[in-house]
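During the second year of the project, the team shifted from modelling isolated chains to modelling whole assemblies. The rationale, set out in the original proposal, was that interfaces cannot be judged from single-chain predictions alone. As a representative example for this report, we include one of the complexes processed in the last quarter. Its constituent sequences, exactly as entered into the pipeline, are reproduced here:
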Amino acid sequence: MSVVELDDLRKTYGDVTALRGVDLTVEAGEVFGFLGPNGAGKSTTINIMLDFASPTAGDVRVLGEDPQHDSVPVRRRTGSLLEGYGVYEHLTAREHVEHAIETRAADDDPDELIARVDLEGAADRRAGGFSKGMKQRLALAVALVDDPDLLVLDEPSTGLDPNGARTLREIVREERDRGATVFFSSHILEQVEAVADEVGILYDGEIVAEDSVGNLRDELGAGSTLIVELTGDPEPLSGIETIEGVRDVRFPNGQLEAVCDDADTKLRVLNRVSEAGRLGEFDVREASLGEVFSKYTGGDRTDASPDRAPATDGGDR
Amino acid sequence: MTWNHVLRRDLLSTYRSRLVPAVAVLLVLATAGIVLGMYALDNYGPPPDRQTAVFAIGAISHVLVPLVGLLAAYSSLVGERESGSVRFLLGLPNSRLDAFAGKFLSRLTAVAAPLTLGLLVCTVAVGALFQNGSYVAMLGLTAVTLLFALVFVGMGMALSAVASTSTRAVVGAVGVFALFRGLWPALQMVLLEVQNVDRYPFPPEWYFWIGRVNPLNAYVKLTTEFADFGTRNHPLLTRTVATDYNPATEEVVVEASVDSIAVTSEFAAVVLVAWAVVVPLVALAVWRRRDLL
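Output from the structure prediction step:
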């Protein structure tokens, strides 16, 4: 059963086009990584899924319901941690969680949820004084109230320290194992790669790739990197980048690093190095999703790698 | 329906933000404080008349209640959008109607509770101590003033639902107050000039049709139901009668009066109810359809 179905979703703000036809299907029980650089339209998509905004055109189904018609049934079964989440500064962390439990008529123990996100020490402090990371933890605790069928996390690791990021990953896995579907949006590849079963890449308002993490690596040939120790100067290897299937060539520290689309390409490169009499030890480095991502979003692997981009907390539209 | 949870949470938040306590102290002082002060300072002769108290409460409330009502409500919804807590509010299964209604009732409570307290103190004081004291009349004044508060809390809510930023909502609130307190009468004056009609002993009927649609005038008109303002009418309202003094009988005689539904208390009541109902309903319709993020 599909938990999220987006069909040709479009959104324009005045003459700015945020979404130009997003098609997306998220199946029940999977962790879906929604990947894209800042400004790609991730938050806009999520806002439409939860009825914070309405689409200019296209269809939305979440948990089988149309949130544009009535979003309450959707939100009754959905927990969300959204980018730009704000707390009620005069309420304590426990009061936030208690309020969510009351509104959802759930029977969770607020202290248990607060402990799950490692916020025990601050349970009775007013949230106005919380750091960004503490607010994220609080929002996550609120999102977990009443064991939602769908968990929507938009840039959930913003402001989290490494411990917090680990806790987040653990919670995502626990929720998936419980049977929940997790919609995990991020511009940071490593985080999506660490938890996601399926990945959709959103770029400039369109889904440019949607597949399993493994398939994306393979099929999109984002290139494992061939590394060859050269036995001499790289002079005779000039022009190696013109070999079909080679996407990027560098010569750091007497080595050759060639990003190759597939195994045949690697073979061609090795033959060429061998012909030039420079073949030493060689190794293959598996592609990270980062390279896949760069390929699809038009960035260069070395200097525009989005996973190195500073985290921002601006609106994604 | 989860508006009651929204109401409770919003009241707690605003109470702790000191907005509610500050508004409460202001409203109690401005009603009970003034009336008790009036009695305490009037040391000579008979105690003050109920009419004095009704006039004072009406004169203060017709300015203070709009300001306080707008202030209490203008940021309620747009403020949550700006702070991001709307993601909490509507991340929970609250409908937009629940959010609107819960916050409306919360801000109304913040204004109406202290206003009721202050006016009940006035009721007891005037009923027990003042000349021509009447508990019933003062309760009526309390009810009318609460209806008046509802009108302006509703306008504040409307601004909050429709405006895209708090700054615009503030500008709107100032604009609403300036419109009713200044621009509206100014417009009436300009029209009188343009029409070049004689405004003595009283202006033509259309002047009242315009003027009494103004909720401030409608409220003041309704307060005159609860004390005898005689033929002079309420000092804040345009005269609707022409009088003459008869030296023989030592009486003021009414020679002519405006004969129009516009100057009746019934019309004033309809006007206030209409403002109280129509403005929030229109705003709610916008709020339910608009993009929030």
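The radius of gyration of chain B is 21 Å. The CA atoms of residues 120 and 207 of chain B lie 35 Å apart.
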